[in-house]
């Protein structure tokens, strides 16, 4: 059994951050019921990369394994009554509605905690539930832009480069996952449920603990260099360098005598770490770039590693998937999905010696488990048929 076996999660979230958090709970054994509109959650209709799949696009497939789907119209009284009945015996409720929507639907914390005082209510938002930016669109790229993080790397005078991942969504998801687990632990001790609030702006801000403290406490300004330095608060050379075979490598904070030996460049041995690393960091970066460009990637990596210098190859996804350590770790899992065929996808990042995560089933079709969930909640066949006839629920794929 999974470590969260016996915990029921109602996932009313959409897009990435909320569904990702709920999926992590499902991976640990929780029974996650994905409550989605009769036409399916938004992510079913917004395929990343244009990869639509057979009946489930890859975006949705990747964020909704280990969940059952209940299709219900929360704008109808019948649909809201179904949700209230499920809440009465649920452990965790997750939503990332726009501010005000939960109140209008009658699924706000005050309403649901009155039904079930032991409920852990996880509310996720872009900027917070109130305040001057509360109604701004909470989209990943926009939050990256506002976080200040983009201005910590790249060249001065050039447009900042965003992360190549949905970075803010992922961090917010893990904040919500962590918050839900902590609140469940508190409930085990006290019997009390509570509300857990997570917003994307705080999530991306707080992971910059060191950088922002250097700015606020150390009063060091955030100034980008002329060279494409990888971080404004780490000494040069620190970044990505091209090699003679058209590949790239990453180099982090080397000692200059070792760099001189590895690159057959005596000039580096005389460099002072503080002067070259901070005051002359553009010149230092350019010298290192010129020296590294004379070697192939494999050659220069071997030379630098011999000196104990921190280096790594720059991978694309094809390289990553085939990396020996990734294979050794079992980072990816593979399984057969009834409509999408063979699926290979990232698996479980947390390992437990006695209660390992497991794949029980892949992402569901819209409303695939509506009858199953309602029967378990106490509805009989006639009641389920009436709810379907009234349009309050959906059964099977809409």
Structural category:
alpha/beta
CATH topology of the largest domain: Rossmann fold
| CATH evolutionary superfamily of the largest domain | Crotonobetainyl-coa:carnitine coa-transferase, domain 1
What gyration radius follows from the Cα positions, in whole Å? Answer: 25 Å
Distance between the termini: 32 Å
Distinct helical segment count:
17
Number of strands: 12
Q: How large is the share of residues in beta strands?
A: 15-25%
CATH class of the largest domain: Alpha Beta
What secondary-structure arrangement, pairings included, does this model have?
Blueprint: E1 8-11, H1 17-27, E2 31-36, H2 58-63, E3 67-72, H3 77-87, E4 92-95, H4 101-105, H5 109-115, E5 120-125, H6 140-147, H7 167-190, E6 194-199, H8 200-206, H9 209-216, E7 238-242, E8 248-252, H10 256-262, H11 273-279, H12 281-292, H13 297-306, E9 310-313, H14 317-321, H15 324-329, E10 332-337, E11 341-346, H16 370-376, H17 381-390, E12 393-394
Parallel strand pairs: 1-2, 1-4, 2-3, 4-5, 5-6
Antiparallel strand pairs: 3-12, 7-8, 8-9, 10-11
Helix pairs in contact: 1-7, 6-8, 7-8, 11-12
């Amino acid at each position: 059994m999974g470590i969260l076996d016996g915990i029921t999660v109602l996932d009313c979230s959409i897009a990435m951050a909320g569904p990702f958090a709920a999926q992590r709970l499902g991976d640990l054994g929780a029974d996650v019921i994905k409550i989605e509109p009769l036409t399916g959650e938004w992510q079913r209709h917004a395929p990343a990369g244009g990869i639509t799949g057979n009946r489930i696009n890859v975006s949705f497939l990747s964020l909704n394994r280990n969940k059952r789907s209940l299709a219900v119209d929360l704008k109808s009284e019948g649909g809201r009554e179904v949700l209230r009945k499920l809440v009465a015996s649920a452990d965790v409720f997750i939503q990332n509605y726009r501010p005000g929507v939960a109140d209008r639907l009658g699924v706000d914390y005050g309403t649901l905690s009155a039904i079930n005082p032991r409920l852990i209510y996880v509310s996720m938002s872009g900027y917070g539930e109130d305040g001057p930016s509360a109604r701004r669109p909470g989209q990943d790229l926009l939050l990256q832009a506002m976080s200040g993080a983009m201005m910590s790397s790249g060249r001065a005078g050039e447009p900042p480069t965003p992360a190549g991942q949905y970075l803010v969504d992922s961090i917010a998801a893990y904040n919500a996952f962590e918050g839900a687990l902590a609140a469940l632990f508190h409930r085990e001790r006290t019997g009390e449920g509570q509300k857990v609030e997570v917003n994307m702006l705080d999530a991306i801000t707080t992971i910059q603990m060191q950088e922002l403290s250097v700015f606020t406490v150390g009063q060091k300004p955030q100034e980008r260099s002329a060279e494409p330095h990888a971080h404004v608060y780490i000494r040069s050379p620190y970044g990505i360098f091209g090699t003679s075979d058209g590949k790239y490598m990453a180099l982090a904070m080397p000692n200059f005598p070792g760099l001189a030996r590895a690159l057959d460049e005596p000039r580096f041995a005389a460099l002072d770490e503080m002067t070259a690393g901070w005051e002359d960091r553009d010149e230092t970066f350019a010298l290192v770039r010129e020296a590294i460009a004379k070697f192939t990637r494999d050659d220069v990596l071997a030379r630098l590693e011999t000196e104990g210098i921190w280096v790594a190859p720059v991978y694309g996804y094809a390289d990553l998937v085939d990396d020996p350590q990734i294979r050794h770790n079992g980072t990816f899992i593979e399984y057969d999905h009834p409509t999408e065929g063979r699926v290979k996808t990232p698996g479980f990042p947390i390992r437990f010696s006695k209660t390992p995560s497991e794949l029980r089933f892949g992402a569901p079709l819209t409303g695939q488990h509506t009858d199953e969930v309602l029967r378990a909640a106490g509805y009989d066949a006639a009641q389920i048929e009436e709810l379907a006839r009234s349009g309050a629920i959906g059964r099977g794929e809409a």
